[in-house]
């Protein structure tokens, strides 16, 4: 804009006023005279400059808004990153806390283990004080064991010397003859026969001259004494003496010793029978068995029945007579002279009291099968592994069973048995009376063990 210039006021004429105001008749001011105010026209350049300034301001404002938005986005990203860092820091803090707790737990466990080790060390130190006493006790026990072993060897030598003196017929002065013994019935020889012993070229004998056989070797198979109980020590001694004779190759002396024990004890222990059978099986003299059978005139196939029992009537089955009458094979009756009258009432060849123990063993070895009470001959048949039926009444097959895989036991197992009495204390004798002959025949006919032998 240019600076305004002062102009003198202009006066209008009535004609002009009338032309502009219309037909109104108002008083008119006197026309001014002098200079007039004149405005310069606005130039177009000034208008475009203002528009450009406004556009620039708007653009600047938009840039500021965009910058503020970018700053806000950056701030938001920074806030998100800060939150993520804070979360990671919290996680690390929790991990550190957990690690610290674990370290504390490990330290506590290590402390407890240290305390336990200290206690063990203290106890070990206390027990270490007893070590000399324990060592002294062990030395004393070893010395005692050595003394007992030497004492047992001395007693064994004395017994052997006594037996040798007795065999010569001159018992040592001041000492009674010793009773022969063997092992406990459970420590029996195996079913498989041991390999034959090789007899040495020069056999050691007590007397160069052949001593006469004892009388009981050729006497009848029977005990002339009442049955008696046999102690374990007596049985152990008997086995040692029998083994001593066997090692020296004196089988006949061992057999005489064992048979003498059977006679003196009444045959209550099965072990002497089993030791005898061990010797016979080692010898394996089958021809001798056949000669014995032929000498008694027996057929090639027969059944052996053993009705007796030295222990007492409570062990004797009362149905042997009925059984013998119903068997298909010829019957051979074996036993002692005391049982001869009992066997006489039974159908069959009565050899009770007519055989030696050797001959009875040989006849049992050739029998197709054996039926017996709980007696010494039952154990003989078991050791020979002959098919057999063992009849139990007052005794128990759990205590003294026939030790053979070919033995079959019949036992009623009543509430009153086993009583181990020599005679039925209740008088009814049901344990044997109710065990009928049909039961035995059924076993002989159904069991494969007996069918294989042609029962």
In short:
The protein has 455 residues and is mainly alpha-helical. It has helices at 14-21, 44-128, 131-168, 215-218, 232-247, 251-265, 271-283, 286-295, 320-326, 340-344, 357-366, 376-383, 430-433, 437-446, 448-452, and strands at 303-306, 331-333, 349-350, 369-373, 388-392, 407-411.
Show unreliable segments: 1-26, 167-220
Shape: elongated
Tell me the name of the CATH class of the domain at 300-452.
Alpha Beta
Secondary-structure element string: HHHHHHHHEHEHEHEHEEHHH
CATH topology type of the domain at 300-452: Rossmann fold
Biggest sheet overview: 6 strands, parallel
The total count of helices amounts to: 15
Structural class: mainly alpha
CATH architecture label of the domain at 300-452: 3-Layer(aba) Sandwich
* Rg, alpha carbons: 64 Å
Distance between the termini: 159 Å
CATH homologous superfamily grouping of the domain at 300-452: Glycogen Phosphorylase B
Helicity range of the residues?
40-55%
Number of strands: 6
Q: How much beta, percentage-wise?
A: 5-15%
Sequence of strands across the biggest β-sheet: 3-2-1-4-5-6
- Overall mean pLDDT: 76
